[in-house]
Amino acid sequence: MDDVAQGWLQHRMVLDDLLALTDNDYVDYRPWDGAMSLGELAIHIVTSTDMFIKGIKQGEFSAPATEDNFKTINDVRTIVQRYTDQTREDIKSIFDFQLKGYILFNGVRAPGTYWLSNAIDHEIHHKGQLFTYVRMTGAQNLPSFMRQPNEV
Asked: Which keywords are on file for this protein (predicted)?
């Protein structure tokens, strides 16, 4: 699971890079009516992955944590860092039997391996949206979609 955590972290660290290109003027930025704000999207990414990983470990899913007490981009960065640290440890502590165990979620019964892959794909999907948000705020030099192994 160390390798899985490392591969996931290569994607997650780009979230930090994107948030570093953002300032307080854009924490509430919404590219269209009804969209999550930039801050909400970043927090959705980390709380959703946390929910999936904890669900795999527990054998059942609970609703993701609510983290809506942020005002500044630094608040968002702090929340992201806290979840990154916890999720890294949680991924590394998943056992083989937890990956093989079946878990029901949204009407789908699938093994932990499926939900782990789904969690990472979900995060990558929303990170792609965040790239668009950040670019729309005027950022010019966006990072690569993932860090190289020696950059984590």
From this structure: Metal-binding
Domain locations in the chain as residue ranges: 2-151
Each residue's pLDDT expressed in tens, for the chain with a length of 152 residues = 999 999 999 999 999 999 999 999 999 999 999 999 999 999 999 999 999 999 999 999 999 999 999 999 999 999 999 999 999 999 999 999 999 999 999 999 999 999 999 999 999 999 999 999 999 999 999 999 998 887 77
Residues 6 and 9: their CA atoms lie apart, in Å, by 5
Parallel, antiparallel, or unpaired: how do β-strands 102-105 and 108-111 relate? antiparallel
DSSP 77-114: HHHHHHHHHHHHHHHHT--HHHHHSEEEETTEEEEHHH
Any known ligand binding at 122? yes
Q: What is the pTM of this model?
A: 0.94
For residue 65, what are the CA distances in angstroms to 43, 76, 90, 132? Answer: 10, 14, 15, 25
3-state secondary structure of 120: helix
Give dist(CA 122, CA 98) in Å, integer: 20
2-151: CATH topology: Four Helix Bundle (Hemerythrin (Met), subunit A) (1.20.120)
